Amino acid sequence: MDQAENLRNIIKKQNLKNITNSRVIAVTSGKGGVGKSSTSINLAVQFTRMGKKVIILDADFGLANIEVMFGVIPKYNLSDLMFAGKELDEIITEGPEGIRFISGGSGIAKLVNLDKEQVRRLVNKLSELEGMADVIIIDTGAGISPAVMEFLVESPETILVTTPEPTSITDSYALLKALSMNENFKKDETTIKMIANRVDSEAEGRSLYEKLNVVVMKFLEINMQYLGAVPQDNNIKKAIMKQKPVSMIFPNATSSRHFEEIATRLMSEGADVPVHKRGIRGYLRSVFAKNM
């Protein structure tokens, strides 16, 4: 073993020692308007109430969903980290109840086309989130664009939000199909869990999952798990109009209780994530590996 190889092994072992238990969860949907960002925010609220430190990364570039739903205008966003010399703590915005978030902004919509120096800076800076949060929620864009796929293909945990609308179901299948066809997707290293949103009952949510899962298992051979259902609730619309999560202003609403149950289930189940995918650093390095 030469000196250079020995040094690489030492660094690799040191990196493994420094891995923390930060949990990275990507929340996505096959189409827009199905409640993806609402799910991200309300799960963040419930995790926070469990004593977890949570940061949301709004990766739906160009659409400021998280900040609008929080009713908070960030001073800086991710593009300021990349192009304006800002530090990570300067672009993290404090939301209600101590939930923090990073606005994606519109300056780096073509994230996958960053040059090597920009990618290194992005990975190194965002890796600092590791010591700031127990849970990092990646609120991705909707659909099957390359930018969305880049975030999903390397995610250790993905939550797919689907509604009973036929277009939502077909688009959810299309997203999973695109994911399965991606050469970098490893189904045994990714856990995909479905939330049935805007259903009339728990039974309808379970039925929606079973119908989609049968097709997914048969044609894509992806083992999708059922995470739970969130019923139709007018309080969600009221909360959105007030620019607050329903779990905050209507904590006893039916939807809030279901978000609490789902968050509790997520925490109790934990995640058996491969070493190289643990934490935000491993996740980001995988996402941008080809650019580094």
Walkthrough of the structure:
- The chain has 292 residues and is of the alpha/beta class.
- It has a single domain, classed as Rossmann fold (3-Layer(aba) Sandwich), CATH 3.40.50.
- The chain has helices at residues 3-17, 36-49, 65-70, 78-83, 88-91, 116-126, 146-153, 166-181, 202-220, 234-241, 246-249, 254-269, 279-287, and strands at 23-28, 54-59, 92-94, 100-102, 135-140, 157-162, 191-199, 224-231.
- An 8-stranded mixed beta sheet has the order 3-4-2-5-1-6-7-8, sandwiched between helices.
- The protein starts with a helix and ends in a 5-residue tail after the last helix.
- 45% of the residues are buried.
- InterPro entries: FlhG, MinD_FleN, P-loop_NTPase, ParA/MinD_ATPase, YlxH/NBP35.
- GO terms for molecular function: ATP binding; ATP hydrolysis activity.
- It comes from Lachnospira eligens.
The total count of strands amounts to: 8
Overall structural class, as computed from helix and strand content, comes to alpha/beta
Helical amount among residues, as a percent range? 40-55%
Indicate the proportion of strand residues.
15-25%
Which spans of ≥5 residues are poorly predicted at pLDDT below 50? 7-19
Task: Give the full name of the CATH homologous superfamily.
Answer: P-loop containing nucleotide triphosphate hydrolases
Oligomer: single chain
For the terminal residues, how far apart are their CA atoms?
25 Å
CATH class: Alpha Beta
How much is the radius of gyration in Å? 19 Å
